[in-house]
C-alpha cells in the first residue's frame, strides 16, 4: 500500500523543529497527553491498589480484584469508540477542536471519580457510576492520542516526523509517572487514611492540570495538512461525510496490520504495570516501593521513546519496531520469573527493562508509523481506530487474561509467558508486512511541494 500525501505537503517548509510555533505545538502535544494519561493511568493505579477495597469490598479479595480490573477494562473498551467519534469529526472539523473537547471530557470524569461516594455509602450505585465515568475517560483518551499525534506530526518537517510524533506518545509514560508520584506521595502522607479518603486527592488535582492544559492548547494553530484539505475541498462537509466508512472499505488491511503491530506495546504494559503491580504487592513488596519503581520505569520509557523516535527518522520505523519486538519477546519469561521471586529489586529490574526500556523502543516510532500509513483526509480516523483497538485488546484485557491464565495454569505463570511471546511475535510479523513510512518517498513529496511553493 502506497503512502498517501495527496492533500499537499504534510509539513511546513521549515526543516527545523526549533521554531517558536513548532515548539508551542510540540509542547502542547506533550502537555495535553501528559494530562490525559495522568487521569487515565491514575485510574489503573487505583484499580490495582484501592478500588477492590473501596467499591467491591463485599466480594472475596480475588474476585474483588478481578472486578476492579474489569472496570479498568471498560475504559479500554471505550477507546476505539472515542477514536472513531473524535477521528470522524477531527477529519471533518479539524484536529484542534477535538483536542479541546477531549481534555474537558477527561477532566470532568476524573474529578467526578474523586468525589464519588463508596459502595458502603450509596450501595450498588457506586460501582455503576464508576463504570460510567471510566467509560467517559476511555472515550476521551481514545480521541486524544490521534489528535495530539497528528498535531505534532503534521506540523513537522518530513525528516523529523518520527521525533515530533513521539512528543504525544511520551505523554503516556510522563502522565503515568506524574500519577505514580502523586499517588505515592499522597499514600505516604495519608498513611492509614489513604484507603479512606487519601486516594481521592490525586483525582481532584486533575482540575488544576486541566486548567493549565486548556490555556496551552487553545494557543496552538490548526495543522497545515488540515488547512490544505479545507482549501482544496470547497464542499468539505459532503466530501468528508463518512471518514470511518472510507477507512473500513478502503484501508481494512492497514487497520488490521497497524493494530496488531501495536498490540505488543500494550500487552507488556498491562502485564507489567497493572497485573504485575497487584501481584508484587500481594507477595509482600512494599506498595510505595512498587509505585516508585513504576515512576523510575516511566523516566526510562520517556528517554527511550525519544531516542527510538530519532533512530526511526534515520533508519525507518519498521527497523526500530522490529528491534523492540524481538527484545520484548526475549524478555517475557525472565521478567515473569523476576516479578514473582518476592525480591523487590528483582521486580524493579523486570519493570525497568520491560516497561521502561523495551516499551520505550516500541513507543517511540509507533505514532508516526501508524499515522503515515493513512491518507490525510482519513488519517485521524484510521490511526485512532488501529491504535485504540490495540489499547483495548492489549492493556485493557491483559490484566484479566493474565489473572485467568494463572488460575488455568494451577498457579503457574508459564501460560502468561506464552501469551506475552505470542503477541510480540504477531506484532513483529505485522510490522514486517507493512510499508515503510519514513522512506525517500516522503522526502520527494516534500521536495516537490517546496519547489511548487518557490515557483509560485
From TrEMBL:
Pfam assignment, any one: MFS_1
Membrane topology label: Multi-pass membrane protein
Residue span, Major facilitator superfamily (MFS) profile domain: 25-439
SUPFAM superfamilies: MFS general substrate transporter
InterPro entries: MFS, MFS_dom, MFS_trans_sf, Sugar_transporter_CS
Keywords: Cell membrane, Membrane, Transmembrane, Transmembrane helix, Transport
Record flagged with keyword Flavoprotein: no
TM regions (residue ranges): 30-51, 63-86, 98-116, 122-142, 163-185, 197-216, 254-277, 289-308, 320-339, 345-364, 385-407, 413-434
PANTHER family: SHIKIMATE TRANSPORTER
Compartments (UniProt record): Cell membrane
Name recorded for this polypeptide: MHS family MFS transporter
